[in-house]
Amino acid sequence: MKTKQPLVRRIIIAFTLMTLIVSGGFSLGIVGIVHFIEEHLVTQHMAEELDSILQKDLAQGLPPRLDAKTRLYASHIPGYEIPANFIGLEEGFVEIVDETGDYYLFILDTPQQRFILVQEQAEFEARENALFNVVFAGFILSGLVAWLLGWMMARTVIAPLARLAQQVRHRGQLHTLAPNLAPDYPDDEVGHVATAFDETLGQLRSSLERERFFTSDVSHELRTPLMIIASSAELLETAELNEREHRQLDRIKRASAEISELVETFLLLARANTKQNPLSGNATLEEVAHEQAKRWAPRFADQGLNFRLIVEEPNDMLFHGGFLSTVMSNLIRNALHYTAKGEIRLLLSANGFRVEDSGQGVPSAQQDDIFKPFVRGSEAQGEGLGLGLSLVKRICAHQGWEVRMYSLPTEGSCFEVTLS
What we know:
Radius of gyration: 46 Å
Protein name: histidine kinase
Catalytic activity: ATP + protein L-histidine = ADP + protein N-phospho-L-histidine
Number of helices: 8
Structural class: alpha+beta
Oligomer: single chain
EC number: 2.7.13.3
GO cellular component, one term: plasma membrane
Mean pLDDT: 81
Largest sheet: 5 strands, mixed
Shape: rod-shaped
Order of helices and strands: HEEEEHHHEHEEHEEHHEE
Low-confidence stretches: none
Distance between the termini: 35 Å
Number of strands: 11
Strand order of the largest sheet: 6-8-9-11-10
Pfam families: HAMP, HATPase_c, HisKA
Number of domains: 3
């Protein structure tokens, strides 16, 4: 996987690399031009000097007139024998650098013999090396200067973006009406980003407000008919009813209690801060579990399922009773919908609880999406809309709890909630 570099570092690297490529090209060009001019001028000079020696000195039987740094060698002239290290070289200009010294050689072949004019070039080589060192030092210095300028330029370019990111990071609550960011920036790319953020934040704030008001209004309006249903059920209990009518009345009371609980949960979530702000506790895990076991026992009996409440480890911490009851109730209802036979177990531990069933389980391909809204298993039963597990996920996220689902080794599924 590619490592993502910060934007400042990428600008510095790009600026430095561009400078090094340009300065490196110039440096190589200087070195190449120096070599070309050196070879061209020295070849021309030595060719003229050797021609002068052959025409004016050797042709008249005179010894060659040479300075202290120049020597002449010839293959058939006594006293001018060619040294062993110069034998076998090609005609023309040759530069030799070995342990004996630094030399320029100009070799001329005639039908009669070979002439080699040799010039010591140690002083010129030293100056050439000094020039190359200066070029190399300039290359390194240009890289360092490019890095410094790139850093300064990157900081200057990124400063508006960093300030915008800081303002966005400390924007805080979505429900508070904060001033727009765009007026603080010029009409450039950063200003366009700030404008886009203002527009998106406005749309998001409007959407959240609509959802919040909808949830609050609906939850508030449902309380009146629920109170009527509950009071009517209480009145019906005083009447003379047969066993079947009593069972139907119990179902009405359970459904009314569940809806009231959900309404209270929705109201709490709607009023809660967008940040994670767990509500204080007022009930223990065992109290909520026994209440849910009592509530769901008739439903399990009607469907012919065995239900067991198992306390593996004690847990004396206090949790928000409404939220914990909603989470546990939805997980039990989900197990009931997906279990045709066998049993459902509610297991309490020191860290939370688990709901295990003996149903057909959830395919591994659907396990990642099972907590998304409106997602139901392929073998779902009942009239659910696929919102129960989504609500469980929201409550757990709000309270700082963790919920996960996995398949059991034998058959069925397990939903585990870790309470913190």
